[in-house]
Design a protein that fits this description.
With about 325 residues, the chain is an all-alpha fold. The chain contains 14 helices and no strands. The protein has one domain. The longest helix is centred in the last third of the chain and has 29 residues. The chain is globular.
């Protein structure tokens, strides 16, 4: 009887340990887990840095006369060709049904619509004002996430949001001149990108971030292929131009978009939008280092505000994860 009882106690002990381990694994997979939160923050910053390099690559590529439409098609097309075999080899699950249609819409209307508004605005108002208007999108994301994603909006988040947006404006530098039509286009670009982020945050909860990014990229590439066929397609003339476009496709598209959506799974839409303001900081540093552009004191102050906003986000994460 004692031996049977000991065996029973032993089996109960094993079952209890298995339950504890399973519970800890589930906790680790939750969005509030501090490790996942920090991984998400690092992924969003990686995405912002990757997006920030695009301006440098684009400057060198456009110097040879590549049209914007052709560059955008090659950007998305090369990224899609690179991502597809990786998804197959890793046996990743592809989106289907309603989510597939939503992701296609994100690629066609999200990227294409935002790009149209953004580049059209550049022809009407100063580039710095267009960029500053685009970085209103963290504010719009914050409002939309409360309305549609049930995210809470705390005092710390409000502080981080104010620091991030103010820092982005200082880094970019704004010329307050231009036609109201251009300003409205710039704001529309920010609104479209905000909706894109909110919809993406919802869809990514149910789908793999890598294959979802592939669908978005492929959809955007198809749109620009059709557009280029109508407006004229430009083939890059030199190996250097191809290298810059490939860098845009790999670093500033595939890595940037995947890291953004994977990171947003852990951080939430609002934190992702705030941390993405590292993009103009990256562009500022690279243009100074590579192109010799002078960094002004106001830009340095703006970069400091953005870094401070990231610290606030990290501190908030640590506070949430503290034991109670």
């Amino acid at each position: 009887m004692d031996k049977r009882q000991k065996k029973l106690d032993f089996l109960i002990g094993i079952a209890h340990r298995a339950w504890v381990i399973r519970k800890s694994v589930n906790a680790t997979n939750s969005k509030e887990d501090p490790v996942n939160q920090l991984i998400g923050i690092c992924l969003i910053i990686l995405s912002a840095v990757s997006f920030g390099t695009m301006a440098i690559f684009a400057v060198f590529a456009s110097a040879t006369g590549v049209t914007v439409e052709s560059m955008l098609f090659l950007r998305f097309g090369i990224a899609a060709v690179m991502m597809f075999p990786i998804a197959l080899l890793q046996k990743r699950r592809f989106p289907n049904g309603r989510d597939l249609l939503i992701l296609i819409g994100m690629g066609v209307f999200g990227y294409a619509g935002m790009s149209f508004c953004y580049f059209t605005a550049l022809t009407i108002i100063p580039p710095s004002l267009v960029a500053a208007l685009l970085y209103l999108y963290p504010v719009f994301v914050a409002v939309l996430s409360v309305l549609f994603l049930n995210e809470t909006f705390t005092r710390n988040r409000l502080m981080a949001l104010g620091l991030a947006v103010s820092g982005a404006v200082l880094v970019i530098g704004v010329e307050f001149t231009g036609h109201i039509h251009g300003i409205l286009l710039g704001i529309t670009a920010a609104v479209i990108y905000s909706v894109y982020t909110i919809v993406g945050a919802s869809v990514m909860k149910r789908n793999d971030a890598f294959t979802s990014s592939f669908v978005i990229i492929t959809s955007a590439g198809t749109f620009y292929l059709l557009y280029s066929l109508g407006s004229g397609f430009f083939i890059p003339p030199t190996p250097g131009t191809w290298l810059n476009i490939i860098a845009i496709a790999v670093i500033s598209t595939a890595i940037a978009i995947y890291a953004y959506f994977q990171g947003m799974k852990y951080t939430g839409a609002v934190n992702a939008a705030m941390l993405s303001t590292f993009e103009p900081v990256t562009t500022m540093v690279l243009t100074s280092w590579i192109l010799g552009v002078h960094i002004s004191p106001s830009q340095m102050a703006g970069a400091s505000l953005i870094i401070l906003s990231a610290i606030v986000v990290v501190m908030r994460t640590r506070k949430i994860s503290a034991p109670v």
